[in-house]
Amino acid sequence: MPTLMQNSPSSEPITLVISEVVQPDRIQEYEDWTRGINHAAQQFEGFLGVEVIRPRDHIYPEYVVIVKFDNYVHLRIWLTSSLYRQWMAKSRYLISKRSHQQLPNGIELWFTLPTDSSPTSSQPAYYKKVILGVLAVYPLILLANVLLNPILSGLPSLLGLLISVTFVSALLTYPVMPWLTKILRSWLYPAAQRH
């Protein structure tokens, strides 16, 4: 059962991020299980959607499942339901490692959080987010300028800017920000390192 952070406002959309390392010989069964539990979640009030990020490395098949509900109460009803527990029980022999994080909507989705979900480790300090953002965004903007400027030079400036922003955002979300947060984890989450 995932640990839910009670300080999230109950009226705001909320996201559950589940990272699961699947047994390499059980990937097809896991795919079937994922479709089943996603269909089950759709039956619950407040369900907004689910996204499954599939692994690129089949030697270490780590899936990231992002489940969104319209508020904390509806997510809690789903997570405490007998249907949810039944589906989770079915997955036990498919998974070698699983972690959960419940997040409010927003930039937090760019962060790879530690599995310790205590309040002290749930969020990096604001100034650290700013520094991490600069470290991630600045090189991507430079890369976008080098790669895209020759292609976009004949387009209207606003359209070119939209394409550049889309390029940067796509790389920022994956793989740049998850990679950076893993590398800088001990600096971002010093409290988690002490547990």
Describe this structure in words.
By secondary structure, the protein is of the alpha+beta class. The protein has two domains: 14-105, Alpha-Beta Plaits, CATH 3.30.70.100; 126-194, no CATH class. 49% of the residues lie in helices and 17% in strands. The protein has helices at residues 27-41, 72-79, 82-91, 126-152, 157-183, 185-188, 190-194; strands spanning 14-22, 47-53, 62-69, 95-104. Strands 2-3-1-4 form a four-stranded antiparallel sheet. The longest helix has 27 residues, at 126-152. The radius of gyration is 19 Å and the shape is globular. The chain starts with 13 loop residues before the first strand and ends with a helix.
Number of structural units classed as domains: 2
How far apart the termini lie comes to 20 Å
Helix content: 40-55%
Strand percentage lies at 15-25%
Helical segment count:
7
Topology-level CATH name of the largest domain: Alpha-Beta Plaits
Structure summary, number of beta strands: 4
Do you know the CATH architecture of the largest domain?
2-Layer Sandwich
**Strands side by side in the biggest sheet:** 2-3-1-4
CATH class of the largest domain: Alpha Beta
Would you list the SSEs in sequence order as H and E?
EHEEHHEHHHH
Radius of gyration: 19 Å
Major sheet, described briefly? 4 strands, antiparallel
Helix and strand composition category: alpha+beta
Assembly category: single chain
Low-confidence stretches: 1-9, 114-121
- Name the shape in a single word: globular
Mean pLDDT, rounded to whole units? 77
